[in-house]
Amino acid sequence: MATEIVFETHSWSVDNDRGIATGWLPGSLSDRGRELALELGERRRADRLSAVFTSDLARAVETAALAFAGTDVPILHDWRLRECDYGDGNGMPAAELHKDRTLHIDRPYPGGESWRQAVHRVGRFLGDLPLRWSGTRVLVIGHVATRWAFDHYIDGEPLEELVNADFGWREGWEYRLT
Predict the structure, then answer these.
(1) Which residues carry out catalysis?
(2) 111: left (phi over 0), alpha (psi -120 to 50) or beta
(3) How do residues 78-100 score in pLDDT, each as one tens digit?
(4) 59 marked among binding-site residues
(5) Of all helices (H) and strands (E), which one includes residue 121?
(6) What confidence tens digit (pLDDT) does each residue in 25-71 have?
(7) CATH of the domain at 84
(8) Rounded to whole angstroms, how far apart are CA atoms 25 and 32?
(9) Quick one: which of 123, 118, 62, 55 has its CA closest to 87?
(10) What sign does the dihedral 29-33-35-41 (CA atoms) show?
């Protein structure tokens, strides 16, 4: 049986406002981000979710906690859903860090990981998901690396194309993991 996955990015953070690439730093939601997290909850509470999985980074955890406060939907934190580890670049200006992401498809950021390593890490989460959640609908709250892994492993998109494309934020992406 297929597992239905709804993917949402963590809500808007203070670092998003400042143009900072948070990476593996915890980050925190801005006032706008807290409002958007509440809207996410309103949008998804009646979505037949069996569970919510979230990156263990603070900005994703805070998004899930606000969105699903007062519900009985279990919220499970998984480090494999983290953003790419930019290593020494965690916390630097995003425009500077991401000026040529193709350089880091296979070459790790100094002190961190490559995009392929990050996508592979999320792929291990996808490999484990059907063991307990087959035939259910789950929500995953994550980051760019999380979505690229879903696009790569579920939809067959080449990582080289994903790294060069605009992220194109929207209210949720839907996947079927078979």
Answers:
(1) 10, 83
(2) left
(3) 999 999 999 999 999 999 999 98
(4) yes
(5) helix 115-133
(6) 999 999 999 999 999 999 998 999 999 999 999 999 999 999 999 99
(7) 3.40.50.1240
(8) 20
(9) 118
(10) negative
Backbone φ and ψ of 124, nearest 5°: -65, -35
Task: Please list, in sequence order, all residues whose beta carbon lies within 8 angstroms of the beta carbon of residue 8, skipping any fewer than 6 positions away.
Answer: 40, 44, 63, 139, 140, 141, 171, 172, 173
- Predicted TM-score of the model (pTM): 0.95
85 is in an annotated binding site: yes
CB-CB contact of 81 with 144 (8 Å): no
Q: How many helices (H) and strands (E) would you count in the chain?
A: 7, 7
Spatial CB neighbours of 24, under 8 Å, sequence gap ≥ 6: 57, 82, 83, 85, 86, 90, 112
Q: CA distances (Å), 70 to each of 29, 75, 94, 153, in order? A: 20, 12, 35, 33
Please tell me whether 19 is known to bind a ligand: no
Count of structural domains, the chain: 1
45 assigned ligand-binding residue: no
Domain boundaries, position 135: 3-177
